[in-house]
């Protein structure tokens, strides 16, 4: 993207050193990018499913060939361990390949029954790409999260303009550069960089759909901005994901997975465990297993720690305020505490018996902290899990009641006897309800999200009577009422 604009730096969160300089793309730059993507759109559609699949599979292969380069960059911009970045990048490449391989089948024209009254018609529903998709991404998983929109939108036949987080612009630019290496022509996938204002400009640039991943607070601003131009949105927002540990859970496995889910990536995972409801009869055993699982977990720079620093420095204050509020309102720290926040790191914190109305139970903490609250039974755990403004994911640990519990949770995704497993299964949709957002990425639903339905109803032969003409007679009216009564049963 050419630009006349100012620049901003990205930083290595461990030291705060500047590691890259990027343009702040202006409203005009963003409009140009969207216009270029729109021009490329017809050619991208004309390439057909097979042509697009070839390009996207080549990109997926290239991402894996260049995984060292990609993950070094992710690690530098986020501070996360390279091995975590590798897992993230591999999952992103997997989603890309899945979307490329399944778009044709998912978007195939479907034939519908026209019903007896309209039996002379053939009814079909076609799926068309929406056109140009704007993607706005967060910094916590800078390749995996936006790829959930980018891959599925491209596979469906859209061109894409991507605005990465200001904390991870290098990853966004790298993605666009590698795509350009396999692209048959330019402007299919563009990256614009900048601060929040560049994101706002993308919302106002008349894209045909805007896929946003980030905090609920920004999502509300994005939705309001997009509403002004009737731009439809997909919103993938924050969570306060619960874990339910039933009496028949595999306690050791539940504890090890919950520690990983809550602490890995420094707790900066939208679908990471934030609160655990454990049934009283196994609570002591579970808490002991949690303490055992956490004892060797430490933050540190890549290559040293199990997880890195807070990528976004201002999050440290929020994490500390949640811990302090939990303790002030009657909760207890059984591992770490308010002093565990040591800029730029946060050491693991385990809190117990935290009141449900405290900040730490209500709001997304986004740090390596976990709260364990005891409940009488699974029913109470379900009620408390659902008593949240968020509804992204959940994890359930039970040998026999997993599906029954899962079916009662008000959220978009549930992992039974596993943690965040749904994010790695490309064939299932990803997304939340309530303040966690709406719309879906991943899976067939993720492809359809970036399409619109076009209904085609064709007269196969003409009937001797006509309903859609001013020549319709009183006899025709009687006939349609009689037929409808006959075929659908008497009304009332
Ligand atoms: P933010 O909401 O702060 O930012 C998200 C993106 O929006 C960034 O690219 C940001 O740009 C951009 N932005 C900021 N202001 C505007 C605006 N007015 N108009 C348009 N775009 C704007 O989220 P974070 O980057 O801090 O990400 C963390 C959050 O993301 C957490 O709440 C986490 O739960 C959530 N998340 C949700 C996921 C899901 O799939 N449900 C997955 C991963 C994270 P800039 O950075 O330049 O300000």
From TrEMBL:
Pfam families: Aldedh. PROSITE patterns: ALDEHYDE_DEHYDR_GLU. Keywords: Oxidoreductase. GO terms for molecular function: succinate-semialdehyde dehydrogenase (NAD+) activity. Residues 5-456 form the Aldehyde dehydrogenase domain. GO terms for biological process: aldehyde metabolic process; gamma-aminobutyric acid catabolic process. InterPro entries: Ald_DH/histidinol_DH, Ald_DH_C, Ald_DH_CS_GLU, Ald_DH_N, Aldehyde_DH_dom, Aldehyde_DH_NAD(P), Aldehyde_DH_Superfamily. The active site is at residues 236, 270. Belongs to the aldehyde dehydrogenase family. This is Aldehyde dehydrogenase. It comes from Candidatus Planktophila limnetica.
């Amino acid at each position: 993207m050419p630009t006349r604009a100012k620049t901003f730096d990205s930083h290595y969160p461990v030291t705060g050193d500047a590691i890259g300089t990027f343009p702040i793309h202006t409203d005009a730059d963003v409009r140009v990018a969207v216009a270029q993507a729109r021009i490329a759109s017809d050619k991208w559609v004309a390439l057909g499913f097979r042509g697009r699949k070839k390009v996207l599979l080549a990109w997926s292969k290239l991402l894996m060939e260049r995984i060292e380069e990609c993950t070094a960059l992710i690690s530098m911009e986020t501070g996360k361990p390279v091995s975590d970045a590798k897992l993230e990048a591999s999952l992103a490449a997997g989603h890309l390949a899945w979307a490329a391989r399944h778009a044709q089948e998912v978007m195939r024209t479907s034939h519908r029954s026209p019903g007896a009254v309209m039996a002379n018609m053939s009814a079909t529903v076609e799926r068309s790409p929406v056109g140009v998709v704007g993607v706005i991404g967060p910094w916590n998983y800078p390749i995996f999260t936006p790829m959930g929109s980018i891959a599925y939108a491209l596979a469906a036949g859209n061109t894409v303009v991507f605005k990465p987080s200001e904390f991870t612009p290098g990853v966004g630019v790298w993605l666009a550069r590698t795509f350009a290496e396999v692209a048959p022509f330019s402007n299919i996938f563009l990256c614009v960089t900048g601060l929040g204002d560049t994101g706002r400009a993308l919302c106002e640039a008349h894209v045909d759909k805007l896929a946003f991943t980030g905090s609920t607070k920004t999502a509300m601003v994005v939705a309001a901005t997009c509403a002004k131009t009737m731009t439809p949105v997909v919103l993938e927002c924050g969570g306060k994901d619960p874990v339910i540990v039933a009496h028949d859970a595999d306690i050791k496995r539940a504890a090890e997975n919950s520690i990983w889910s809550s602490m890995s990536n420094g707790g900066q995972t939208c679908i990471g465990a934030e609160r655990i409801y454990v049934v009283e009869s196994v609570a002591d055993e579970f808490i002991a297993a949690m303490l055992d699982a956490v004892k060797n977990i430490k933050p540190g720079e890549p290559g040293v720690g199990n997880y890195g620093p807070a990528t976004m420095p201002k999050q440290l204050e929020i994490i500390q305020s949640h811990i302090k509020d939990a303790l002030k309102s009657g909760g207890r720290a059984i591992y770490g505490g308010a002093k565990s926040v040591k800029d730029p790191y946060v050491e693991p914190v385990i809190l117990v018996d935290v009141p449900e109305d405290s900040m730490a139970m209500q709001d997304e903490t986004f740090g390596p902290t976990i709260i364990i609250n005891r409940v009488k039974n699974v029913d109470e755990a379900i009620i408390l899990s659902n008593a949240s403004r968020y509804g992204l994911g959940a994890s359930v640990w039970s040998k026999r009641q997993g599906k029954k519990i899962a079916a009662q949770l008000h959220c978009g995704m549930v992992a039974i006897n596993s943690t965040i497993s749904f994010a790695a299964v490309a064939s299932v949709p990803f997304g939340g309800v309530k303040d966690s957002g709406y719309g879906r990425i991943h899976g067939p639903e993720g492809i359809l999200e970036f399409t619109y339905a076009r209904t085609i109803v064709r007269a196969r032969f003409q009937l001797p009577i006509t309903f859609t003409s001013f020549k319709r007679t009183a006899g025709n009216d009687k006939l349609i009422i009689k037929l409808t009564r006959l075929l659908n049963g008497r009304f009332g």
